[in-house]
Amino acid sequence: MKFSIGYPLNPVSGSSFFERMSPLLGHIAELYFAWPGAPSARSAAGSDFGIIDYGAPDELLDELAAFRSAGVKLALLFNGNCYGEDSMSYALECRVCSVLAYMARTVGLPETVTAASPAIAFVVKKHFPSIKTRASVNMRIGTVEGLDYMSDRFDEFILQRDYNRDIERIRELTDWCSANGKAASILVNSGCLRFCSGQTFHDNLVAHGEGADMRYPIEDFSLYTCWNYLARSTENLLSLLRATWIRPEDLHHYDPYFDTVKLATRMHPSPYMVLEAYVSRRFTGNLLDLFEPGFGSLLEPRIVDNNKFSPDWFEKALACDKKCTRCGVCRAEWERIFT
Fold first, then answer.
1. Per-domain residue ranges for the chain?
2. Which of 31, 101, 133, 164 could serve as a FRET partner for 157 with CA atoms 20 to 30 Å apart?
3. What CATH number was assigned to the domain covering residues 2-217+243-285?
4. pTM to 2 decimals?
């Protein structure tokens, strides 16, 4: 199994991301990245995306070229959850094609475009048929029906993270993908709460980030459903155990189903640490430090000690009825690992 890692949203000035990640280069299958100024799932919309033919900083182009020369595939993100009035416009088509044409002239076309928009997937297939289209994890595709509905738009799917611990469902979805010439992957270090009812609102707001930031915010309102919920009571902290992440020590259970899995590293302060943990399949320290978001600051000075998990933790997680009937298993595990 290899990994798809994200280029940092705010790279360290004067520091080469390629050089920092190079000791583990053999384990990196793909580098995914957002185009400057374009809405994505982790960056604010920028007015530059309205310009038809614009470039990118030399630093980004140099990094992309370095990874590509090392045999790492490139995946361009057009995975904003909303493009407003332009969501199915000719203007959006021109912008997407402009970026891809610019890449073709500089570092070469990406192997993949990840989108949360069927319209963008359509545009890419129409004008750049050599590029694979991939459905974003934020599309929440977690059923065979959902895969089939989008099978004419997407060649690859990142499966709904809420089912990461449902091996039977993963087997069903990956079997369908194999039978229909599609590829599948999962995001393994998301800190997001399972079936978060605030995700759509949050994703839409992120897509309009720059414009939203220019408005005077509602006083005392926080957009983060997860932080609000976890801070509400100590009982709610148990939801951190019921979330969507997979520990590095449990990754081997997914080897039969995936050749490549995605790591959230675009906003993570230590992407090398995350990759190293999942490559080695072990981690010593606060488990929350591997995730994005991690919630570590909410629990300080206490931590979730990854070394203290029960040997049969993964089996317990799989056996959960997913309906959270308060059976006591999570509470007992939490008391064991929360130190």
1. 2-217+243-285
2. 101
3. 3.20.20.60
4. 0.92
